Amino acid sequence: MIALSLSTTGRSLTGINTVVPSNADPPALVSPGMYQLDIVLKKGINLAIRDRGGTSDPYVKFKIAGKEVFRSKTIHKNLNPVWDEKVTLLVDNIREPLYVKVFDYDFGLQDDFMGSAHLYLESLEQHRSLDVTLELKDPHYPDHNLGSLELAVTLAPKEGDFRENTMLLRRSWKRSSKYQSLRLSDVHKKSQLWRGIVSISLIEGRNLQPMDANGLSDPYAKFRMGHQKYKSKTIHKTLNPQWREQFDFHLYDEVGGFIDITVWDRDAGKRDDFMGRCQVDLSLLSKECTHKLDLPLEEGEGMLVLLVTLTASAAVSISDLSVNMLDDPQERRGILHRYVSVNELG
After folding, report:
1. Angstrom distance (rounded) from CA 295 to CA 107
2. Which ranges carry the C2 domain (predicted)?
3. Per residue in 170-182, pLDDT tens?
């Protein structure tokens, strides 16, 4: 077991206690080249409370050299979440530590920081699976106990041509800006695939909460699924808004996912008023079928009415759109149109 405590200053291995057999060989000296880093994000233990109900909705981000290379799923209302997510990274400089950050997912608001840690790759024994415990800390409050993460990691030099194996990565990655040489950021870009389309029709709201002095509201809705966001138009002076808006999100996982929805009252010149929230669990919906959903608003009044359709899609790679020309121009235009990012929240 390797116990790693957070040290945000330098690359000192102080605070890292490595327990290995007495006859084990010391870690090999680092050398330039490509390395394969296999990580299993197992679970969190005694994570920080960030929500009013005495719990949190944690998810984990990995960064290398300032680039986000992985984001886990969100485990709702759990301080001891079990992820069991497997990740394969290609790393071209193991002197760059893996930066691990944990956040509490908040509906429609900025996510709350729950702690961070560094995994120093050059300290790892190569060609061996190691159990790692990362002690989470807040650099501004280093004495606070924020719990820990448990991982299993394996580091090994990547031999030969790795280009044919890039599509074997088991997770979706954040897009990099441009296709250059097939380095770390490009591997992540190439492996971002969507598995389906979630088509959402925001039909109407019913009996929403009055927020203004006239006994009415000016409601609009915000939708969020992972990094994808959408904001509806504002319907003025009504408790029963008729939106009739349609938009799409892309599914990057084989199954599941949550759509988080918040409703707000628009106030000119002042902070908008929160009117309630609801959630759609996509794992409960069958594919190739339109579902009419009446969603009561928590922490508010009334409900939203949606139509939601899940459509399976052949996996489409971002690099297929940005690098390789499709033979059929009409097909290319169609795929690009489907991939246009939805409106950012204001």
Report:
1. 15
2. 15-134, 178-297
3. 333 333 333 323 3
